[in-house]
Write a structure and sequence with these properties.
about 100 residues; Lambda_DNA-bd_dom_sf; Fis family transcriptional regulator; DNA binding
Length: about 100
C-alpha cells in the first residue's frame, strides 16, 4: 500500500503546495461578496438596472461585480455597491496560517 502525503494535511497547505492558494482564496471571497450583494439587492427590491444607476456605473460593471468567478473588481466599485445597499465595506489584513 502506498502512502499519500496529502492525507491528514490541511486544505490550505495542499493548495499552497499546488501554488493556487491565493487564487482559490480570491475566488471564495468574491463568491461571498457577490452573494451578499445579490441578497441585499433582493431584500431591497433593487433590479440590476436600478442598482447600476444608483451606483453611477454601467450594467456591465455591475454584472462583473455579481459574477462570482470574476475577481477583477475595484475597491471603488465595492464601495459604491455597499453605499447603495446601506452597508459599509470593511477589508482587513490578517496574519497568515
Amino acid at each position: 500500500m502506498t502512502h499519500n502525503p496529502h492525507i491528514g494535511s490541511a486544505l490550505d497547505e495542499l493548495l499552497e503546495e499546488d501554488g493556487i492558494l491565493a487564487e482559490v482564496s480570491a475566488i471564495a471571497i468574491k463568491r461571498v461578496l457577490a452573494w451578499q450583494v445579490t441578497q441585499e439587492m433582493s431584500n431591497l427590491g433593487l433590479s440590476k438596472s436600478q442598482m447600476a444607476v444608483q451606483m453611477r456605473t454601467s450594467r456591465t460593471s455591475l454584472d462583473r461585480l455579481l459574477d462570482p468567478d470574476n475577481t477583477s473588481i475595484t475597491l471603488k466599485t465595492l464601495e459604491r455597491a455597499a453605499t447603495v445597499l446601506g452597508k459599509r465595506l470593511q477589508i482587513e489584513l490578517v496574519d497568515g496560517v
